[in-house]
Design a protein that fits this description.
about 150 residues, HIT family, subunit A, 4 helices
């Protein structure tokens, strides 16, 4: 537990939250500044700042819980779908790994809320970008813990 982390305090029961799910791996609670009603956060109970720090052995259980809570939010809120998002460092208002679970419906206005899109200048530029990512993936696959 990080004693300075609000999410660690929520997981430890030291701060109030509207909890919707809890097991030995994770905790889900309502975001108190929701984009839409039902906006839920799923956190690991142990403190990890980013997805890149998250241990491989916890991924299956955590993402199984994400699937379950996402289905529950979608059904409970009568939405047409779910948007899941993880910020890592940039736009991460609380530096504790968390997944946003947002109920979505057609015409809810969120498309313009998130990010502007742009095209690659050319297919050569797209190929160059893909090549850089592939090269980095090969390097990471051949290093301990992908670091």
């Amino acid at each position: 537990m990080n004693p300075d982390c609000i999410f660690c305090k929520i997981a430890a029961g030291q701060e109030p939250a509207c909890v919707v799910f809890e097991d030995n791996i994770s905790l889900a609670f309502l975001d108190m500044r929701p984009v839409f009603y039902g906006h839920t956060l799923l956190i690991p109970k142990k403190h990890f700042t980013t997805m890149m720090e998250f241990p491989d052995e916890m991924i299956y259980g955590f993402f199984s819980n994400l699937k379950l809570v996402s289905r529950a939010v979608e059904d409970a809120m009568g939405s047409q779908g779910i948007f899941n998002a993880i910020n890592n460092r940039i736009s991460q208002s609380v530096p504790h790994l968390h997944v946003h679970i947002l109920p979505r419906s057609k015409g809810d206005g969120m498309r313009h809320f998130l990010w502007p899109r742009k095209l690659y200048e050319s297919m050569d530029e797209a190929d160059k970008t893909a090549g850089a990512i592939r090269q980095t993936l090969e390097r990471l696959k051949n290093t301990p813990n992908g670091q």
